[in-house]
From TrEMBL:
<dbReference type="InterPro" id="IPR001034">
    <property type="entry name" value="DeoR_HTH"/>
</dbReference>
<dbReference type="InterPro" id="IPR036390">
    <property type="entry name" value="WH_DNA-bd_sf"/>
</dbReference>
<dbReference type="GO" id="GO:0003700">
    <property type="term" value="F:DNA-binding transcription factor activity"/>
</dbReference>
<dbReference type="Pfam" id="PF00455">
    <property type="entry name" value="DeoRC"/>
</dbReference>
<dbReference type="InterPro" id="IPR014036">
    <property type="entry name" value="DeoR-like_C"/>
</dbReference>
<dbReference type="InterPro" id="IPR018356">
    <property type="entry name" value="Tscrpt_reg_HTH_DeoR_CS"/>
</dbReference>
<protein>
    <submittedName>
        <fullName>DeoR family transcriptional regulator</fullName>
    </submittedName>
</protein>
<keyword id="KW-0238">DNA-binding</keyword>
<dbReference type="InterPro" id="IPR050313">
    <property type="entry name" value="Carb_Metab_HTH_regulators"/>
</dbReference>
<dbReference type="InterPro" id="IPR036388">
    <property type="entry name" value="WH-like_DNA-bd_sf"/>
</dbReference>
<feature type="domain" description="HTH deoR-type">
    <location>
        <begin position="6"/>
        <end position="61"/>
    </location>
</feature>
<keyword id="KW-0804">Transcription</keyword>
<dbReference type="Pfam" id="PF08220">
    <property type="entry name" value="HTH_DeoR"/>
</dbReference>
<dbReference type="GO" id="GO:0003677">
    <property type="term" value="F:DNA binding"/>
</dbReference>
<keyword id="KW-0805">Transcription regulation</keyword>
<dbReference type="InterPro" id="IPR037171">
    <property type="entry name" value="NagB/RpiA_transferase-like"/>
</dbReference>
């Protein structure tokens, strides 16, 4: 019964916040007839789900993931965090493996750290990744083909998906527009969403690389639940609450500060 009451209260709080856009904890406490500590615990749960955003003394409606700037502009954003994530992800790749590298600025940082790997096979649907790896003689490069999504320099659609269905990788390293505990991995573009679903199925292990700005947000199209990935590599600025909740789902979360212990 307590669980049902809590679930109903969470839904009610979410509805109120969406209507008001911003409301104080004291107001919610008075309106729902429960203590402020209870409201704060509820808001913590809703924030981890990506439903609301807590602020000092109150709460506002969750930030929805909007259309990102083109990939060439995003390359300068959180550059150091992406580089550290890229180095850590590359350290997990073994000589002789077959990996899939998806599109994005963080996956490009992974590609930049593969120069010392031997007998590696890389499958990619990302033009920027393919361009960077094209002259690396230690890497066998497989490009999926497909319809180019210009803003992302990615290849999507039926051709890319059919190619991926005929291939298998040891690891798939992907990025995602938005990640939340409740809605999982979500994306803006519906066609890219379908391609991403096929990507996730082509590898024995799926590794998500995502800096702190990707979490607690929800985009329009659901790609997969968070548990579709086995590992998440993020930076040290991702909140401890989010990291703990992801680990509670059975997902291994790695951060650059842990690299020295690996």
């Amino acid at each position: 019964m307590d669980t049902l009451l809590t679930t109903a209260r969470l839904e009610q709080i979410e509805h109120i916040v969406k209507e008001r856009q911003h409301i104080r904890v004291t107001e919610l406490s008075e309106y729902l007839g429960v203590s402020e500590p209870t409201i704060r615990r509820d808001l913590k749960k809703l924030e981890l789900m990506g439903r609301v955003k807590r602020e000092h003394g109150g709460v506002s409606a969750a930030e929805l993931a909007t259309v990102e700037p083109p990939i060439v502009q995003r390359g300068v954003e959180n550059r150091e965090e992406k580089r550290s994530i890229g180095r850590l992800a590359a350290s997990l790749i073994k000589d002789g493996e077959t990996i899939f590298l998806g599109s994005g600025t963080t996956t490009l940082e992974v590609a930049r750290c593969l120069e010392n790997k031997q007998k590696l096979t890389v499958i990619t649907n990302a033009l920027n990744v393919a361009y960077h790896l094209a002259e690396k003689e230690n890497i066998t490069l497989i490009i999926t083909g497909g319809v180019v999504r210009h803003s992302e320099l990615s290849m999507i659609g039926h051709i890319a998906e059919q190619t991926l269905k005929d291939l298998r990788a040891d690891k798939a390293i992907i990025s995602m527009r938005a990640v939340s505990l409740q809605d999982g991995l979500t994306s803006i573009d519906p066609l890219e969403t379908i391609t991403d679903r096929v990507i996730i199925q082509c590898a024995r292990e799926v590794i998500l690389v995502a800096d702190n700005t990707k979490f607690g947000k929800v985009a329009t199209n659901i790609v997969a639940p968070a548990t579709a990935v086995q590992k998440i590599i993020t930076d040290d600025r991702t909140s401890e609450e989010i990291v703990s909740q992801l680990r509670a789902l059975g997902i291994e979360v790695l951060q650059p500060s842990m690299a020295q212990d690996m």
